[in-house]
Specification:
The complex is a heterodimer of chains A (90) and B (420).
Chain A (H helix, E strand, L loop, with lengths): L2 E4 L13 E4 L4 H11 L4 H4 L10 E5 L2 E2 L14 E6 L5
Parallel strand pairs in A: 1-5
Antiparallel strand pairs in A: 1-2, 3-4, 3-5
Chain B lengths: L6 E5 L5 E3 L13 E5 L1 H7 L2 H5 L29 E3 L1 H6 L5 E5 L10 H14 L4 E5 L3 H13 L2 E7 L4 H8 L4 E5 L3 H14 L3 E2 L5 H6 L2 H10 L7 E5 L4 H15 L9 E7 L4 H7 L25 H11 L2 E5 L1 H15 L5 H15 L9 E5 L24 H19 L1
Parallel strand pairs in B: 5-13, 6-7, 6-9, 7-8, 10-11, 10-13, 11-12
Antiparallel strand pairs in B: 1-2, 1-3, 4-5
Classes of the chains: A alpha+beta (90), B alpha/beta (420).
Chain lengths: 90, 420
């Protein structure tokens, strides 16, 4: 199974300029691990010291904020995951 | 801070400074950026008398705003009335209630005119030709109007179901509107992605740190209009949560500059119950925000994932304030209460604020002897659909005195009957 991650320009200096990343993660934890393993410099920007997703990072699965999905949401084939810095709007 | 920069961006979390550029987040840690100033330097150049000599608009606080060397200060934005509210105060059993009335802000009748005025000076300085925003309506109006005046092309993004008056009030200025089939949070996410790709000046995305500083002028004006003193309490509507943090910042700067005496002002936030991520957090004793899916008539406040929610909740709790939220029916009642008591027709967001104040007085969280300011941020003529069905159109009568006498008798009988 493969899911696609869209990487915002804010992150790209830690991803060798890549704006997309495909991986086989089953859930959010695995996805963040996969990103952190592939791009070690990105790791501290994904989770805080307690392992929680960073406050200023929003994660969407297809069109939905992941926080509205089931806590143990399992990715489906072809899911499009989008990372977006949260500092906008209002 | 570098000696040749009167202001620059600094990360709110890791404190790294970034000079000035169109970006809203720290490239090191992705936390929000905000503008900092050399207040020691500013202290030498402004005082109460100097400010009093300047035109009555927000440009009178120019040293405390992130303005480029050249900017157009010809639009008299801001400096809206701060009025005492004796009749509304009587309802709340207080004699010290004030209204900061941004429902008459120039040019588009909401406090968003302030933030856009500041953002467009930077849009010009950074060389953007197209300005844009994600908007629940008021911001789109302000961007469209001021872009027309300043010669920018404007393209704004809104949720498809906005109030017709807010859509018309954008279209009339020749701005392009992109209606998005989704709520504000969807619109906002899309705008972040567009700003990431296209070189447009999104006032509340890549220009956001500068834009947000415009909100401070509400705070400066409140202090100046109270005779250079701070109130005990302010009640502020919350959507993205930025305004409350910026009024806090404004008061703190005035204290630091010696323009007002220090005071522990309590900050109170107001939301609609149908979109209350910040007030829910405050009531639960936390500052971490859980997003919500908005469902409220207060569409200008319908942001379920507020960018500054964490900071707004922290400001409220840190000040000893509180947050309240109100149902749609309570919001409409409060709009009518403000109109009937003080003659101010505010939009739904103003109803949210007045309703919150009513609750806060009733709970004893705001005391009658304290000086309290309610921030009325938008105009009721833009959200008339929220009042649909509340007032029935009267039957017309013939233009004859006899017909009027008959009408009067009928009405008096009805009133007398109703009184029995």
């Amino acid at each position: 199974m493969s899911i696609n991650v869209s990487i915002p320009s804010a992150f790209r200096r830690h991803t060798e300029g890549l704006d997309r990343f495909a991986c086989a993660a089953d859930n959010l934890d695995e996805l963040l691990d996969a990103l952190a393993n592939r791009f070690p410099e990105l790791k501290p920007h994904l989770r805080d010291d307690q392992g929680k997703v960073r406050r200023f990072l929003n994660i969407y699965v297809n069109d939905e904020d992941i926080r509205f999905l089931d806590k143990d949401y399992k990715f489906a084939e072809g899911d499009q995951v989008t990372l977006v810095p949260s500092i906008a709007g209002g | 801070m570098s000696a040749n920069l009167p202001y620059q961006l600094r990360c709110r979390e890791c404190q790294t400074t970034w000079g000035n550029k169109p970006v809203s987040y720290c490239e090191k840690c992705f936390a929000p950026l905000e503008v900092i100033y050399d207040l020691e330097q500013i202290k030498k150049s402004i005082n109460r008398d100097e400010i009093a000599r300047r035109p009555t608009n927000l440009w009178r606080y120019k040293e405390l705003l992130p303005l480029p060397e050249q900017y157009d200060a010809s639009l008299p934005v801001g400096f809206t009335p701060l009025i005492k509210a004796p009749a509304l105060g009587e309802t709340f059993r207080t004699k010290s209630l004030y209204l900061k009335n941004d429902s008459v802000c120039f040019p588009t009748l909401s406090f968003k005119d302030r933030v856009v005025a500041v953002a467009l000076t930077q849009a010009s300085s950074f060389g953007f030709e197209v300005v844009s925003c994600s908007s629940t309506g008021n911001l789109a109006n302000a961007v469209a109007a001021q872009a027309a005046r300043s010669g920018f092309k404007a393209c704004v993004f809104i949720p498809a179901d906005l109030e017709p008056a807010k859509i018309l009030g954008t279209e009339i200025y020749g701005a392009r509107i992109v209606r998005i089939a989704g709520n504000y949070d969807h619109v906002n996410r899309l705008c972040s992605q567009i700003a990431d790709k296209h070189r447009w000046g999104f006032v509340n995305v890549n220009l956001r740190p500068y834009y947000a500083e415009g909100s401070k002028t509400v705070g400066y004006e409140i202090a100046e209009q109270l005779g250079w003193r701070l109130p005990d309490n302010v009640v502020i509507p919350m959507a993205g949560g930025s305004l409350i943090t910026k009024i806090y910042k404004a008061f703190r700067e005035l204290v630091e500059l010696g323009l007002v005496e220090a005071k522990n002002v309590k900050f109170f936030g107001a939301q609609a119950t149908g979109c209350s991520p910040i007030s829910t957090a405050v009531k639960a004793g936390r500052n971490e925000i859980e997003p919500q899916k908005p469902s409220t008539i207060a569409r200008s406040l319908a942001i379920g994932n507020p960018a500054d929610g964490f900071y707004a909740a922290s400001t409220i709790v840190g000040s000893g304030g509180w947050a309240e939220d109100s149902s749609d029916a309570e919001i409409v009642d409060a709009m009518a209460l403000l109109a009937e008591s003080e003659g101010i027709f505010t939009e739904t967001a103003g109803g949210v604020t007045v309703s919150a104040a009513r609750k806060l007085y009733a709970q004893g969280r705001i005391l009658p002897e304290e000086t309290t300011v309610l921030c009325i941020t938008g105009n009721g003529l833009k959200t008339t659909d929220a009042l649909a069905g509340r007032h029935q159109a009267a039957e017309p009568i013939a233009p004859k005195l006899a017909a009027f006498e008959e009408y009067l008798e009928k009405e008096l009988t009805a009133v007398a009957g109703g009184a029995q």
